[in-house]
From TrEMBL:
Organism: Rhipicephalus appendiculatus
Protein's name in the database: Uncharacterized protein
Region (Disordered): 1-124, 155-189
Highest taxon of source: Eukaryota
Keyword line: Coiled coil
């Protein structure tokens, strides 16, 4: 399709985007449409029309945070043949992907308690970064769109001035990724609900991007202004539906936030219970330490008791040896005692015999005493005769001495110094030794 056959009103709609599009009476209007001024219209990320003050460049992006609920896709109107033939040009080699911002690592203390605000902080920071990146890319996207529209306008004017066939208007290339989704915070990756919400948002972003691409292809490549207006109105209705989905997704997010807050309250209660359990564990640990010290004391006492038992066993062995020696000594002493008893028995028998003899002797003595009493006068007479005999003996001794002296002086002595006097009348002889 050549640009020369395109009406001027259509070109103005495609390039300036300042005309207010007609709205059907049956089409419901959103809050953003009711608040739209007469200055101009612009597509925003929620799919509705809004005015930008100060002549800001048109900004469009498909980055927004969708929901887990998917609505049935509305039936699209058949595109004209020229719009289907338009192909997107390849990406410009000089364009580079937006550098994802460095995400801080969220470290949670293993022992401390985290409040619900601290748990929501990573999600809030990630959401704020996504919104900021979305706005920046939206502005960049609008500038590129405005630049391409102006360039195509100048090119169309040049083609109108030059004779010859006119080429079709080149489609506007889409921008690259809207948000740095390469890295997600651990809280989003670990939560299945948030991960599903993120995937649903990506799906809705892709659908919105395709709708925007189809819108711009139809706006830049359609022949009649009425068809483009109908297509734009259809796309706006689809964007309104996406806005409804977004509101539902926001409600879903609010419910998930409430569920998350409830979960955080439950986690806080669990942490309180865990703290109580830790206190109980500390008390049990202290009791265990006390029991362990008591067991240690008992083990020390048991060791001392074992040492005492070993000492008593040694003493018992010593006493057993002493008992054996005592038994041997007792047997020896018992033998001696038996011998002494035998000797005592013999002596007792002898004493009994001697006692009997003593009794007999006492009887004999009494008899002798009686006899002595009878013989006492005779003894007295014998004593007087004994005295006379003693006197006679003394006289005889004196005579003998004189005889000896006479014999020694007048008679011869024998070789032994003795002499043999003459026999007496009784025939006895005396042998006297020299004095």
């Amino acid at each position: 399709m050549s640009s020369s056959a395109r009406p001027p009103g259509r070109s103005t709609l495609a390039r300036s985007k300042s005309l207010r599009l007609p709205r059907p009476t049956a089409q419901p209007q959103s809050k953003d449409d009711l608040a739209q001024p007469e200055g101009g219209c612009q597509l925003r990320r929620h799919g509705s029309m809004r005015a930008i003050g100060g002549g800001a460049p048109a900004a469009m992006s498909a980055s927004y945070h969708g929901s887990l609920q998917s609505e049935p896709q509305p039936a699209r109107k058949p595109q004209p043949e020229s719009a289907r033939k338009v192909q997107l040009p390849p990406q410009q080699p000089g364009r580079s992907k937006p550098r994802p911002e460095s995400k801080p690592t969220f470290a949670a203390s293993a022992t401390g308690k985290s409040s619900p605000e601290e748990d929501e902080a990573p999600m809030k920071e990630h959401f704020a970064r996504l919104v900021q990146e979305h706005d920046r890319l939206q502005v960049k996207y609008g500038r590129l769109r405005a630049h391409l529209v102006e360039r195509e306008c100048r090119r169309e004017q040049q083609l109108q001035q030059q004779p010859g066939p006119k080429g079709p208007l080149a489609p506007i290339p889409e921008d690259e990724a809207d948000s740095p989704d390469g890295e997600l915070p651990p809280c989003v990756r670990d939560s299945p609900l948030l991960m599903g919400l993120h995937l649903e948002a990506q799906r809705l972003q892709q659908e919105l991007r395709r709708a925007q691409r189809a819108y711009w292809d139809l706006v830049l490549g359609s022949d009649s202004g009425d068809d483009s207006a109908e297509v734009v109105v259809d796309l706006l209705s689809q964007l309104e539906k996406r806005d409804t989905e977004l509101s539902r997704a926001r409600g879903r997010c609010e419910r998930l936030s409430e569920a998350l807050a409830q979960s955080e309250r439950e986690v806080a209660a669990c942490r309180d219970a865990l703290h109580d359990y830790q206190l109980q564990m500390e008390a049990q640990r202290a009791a265990h330490e006390a029991q362990r010290s008591h067991v240690h004391d008992l083990q020390v006492q048991l060791g001392e008791a074992r040492e005492g038992c070993e000492f008593l066993q040694a003493e018992r062995a010593t006493l057993a040896e002493a008992q054996l020696e005592s038994e041997a000594e007792m047997r020896r002493l018992r033998g001696l005692l038996e011998a002494a008893l035998e000797t005592s028995r013999i002596l007792y028998q002898r004493c009994a015999k001697l006692f009997a003899k003593c009794q007999q002797k006492s009887v004999r003595l009494s008899q002798l005493e009686s006899q002595l009493e009878c013989q006492r006068p005779i003894a007295e007479a014998t004593a007087s005769s004994g005295q006379a005999l003693a006197q006679l003996s003394a006289k005889l001794q004196a005579f003998l001495k004189t005889s000896v002296l006479f014999a020694a002086s007048h008679l011869q002595l024998d070789s032994e110094g003795t002499f043999k006097p003459a026999k007496t009348a009784r025939g006895s002889s005396f042998r006297l030794s020299p004095a």
